[in-house]
Structure formats: structure tokens, C-alpha cells
């Protein structure tokens, strides 16, 4: 009987430990921020040392208030707001390989092949060397209607044909040679 009780206690403790880990990881998904106002964000991330300001966004066409959580760290994340009172998030983005990820499983460093697998269909991408360099087109896949936007960065050599504001047509061998990885993740409402 004592062995059975001990086994029950061990299983119960293991189950509790697993749920704590899941809650912790959910805190650092960008989707956990959606539909939050400034006060709610600061309450959720009280240790984030937030920096606030106003900047010109959207290719220099719109001035928006912003908040940077965990500035200067690998967990830095930028939130831009729709309004000055910061009641509604416009977008969220980050480019560091810290704790943040998307609930879809995408994180900084996710490879092109992994991204295609998550999407359930081959992704397309825009050329490099401009404001939206490496932007991904979900190509009708699972993430097509999501609010997640990602940008790829090549770790391999970039031939001239891969530059410019257009969707790139590349062979599987060319894509492999580029060694594309997610470099920025954005959530846009």
C-alpha cells in the first residue's frame, strides 16, 4: 500500500511540474500579448524594464507610440500601439533568439524547411536588400490567415537574382544553398 501511495505522489508531482513549464512557455509567445493594453502588458511582464517612445513606422509614413520590453537583451521585443493611450496593439516584433516564439512553433532560427512543414505547404519569400527583405508569403498554407508574419535571412551567399521587391522563384537546390532561417517574427492585428 505504501508503494502505491508513493507512486501516486511521484506521478502527481511530475504532472504539476509539467503544467508549470507549459504556463511559463506560454508567457513568451507573441500571441499572449494580443488584445492587451499597456497596463496589462506591464503587469504581465513586470520585470521587463520597459522603454517607451514615439517613432516613425511603416516606411516613414506613420508616427506611432511604442514600448520595448527587455531592452538590450536577447528577449527584447518591440510593441507598437494603434493609439497614444496604448489601449490597442498595432504590431509586435522581435529579432533576437531569446525566449519568445509564436504559438505555431516558429522561433528565430527556424529553417525554411521547418517553416514549410509548420505551414503545411511550401512558403514563398520576397527578395533581399529592401525594407521587407525576406518577407514570407504563406502561399495558401495553414498560416495564410494568421496574424503571424516572418522574415527570412540567408546565411549562404546571395546571388544578384535574389535581390528586390518581388517573390523569388528558386530551385530547391538554390533555397538549400541560401540556408534560409527566420530572422524576424511579427504579429500584426
Automatic annotation (TrEMBL):
<protein>
    <recommendedName>
        <fullName>Lipoprotein</fullName>
    </recommendedName>
</protein>
<keyword id="KW-0732">Signal</keyword>
<feature type="signal peptide">
    <location>
        <begin position="1"/>
        <end position="21"/>
    </location>
</feature>
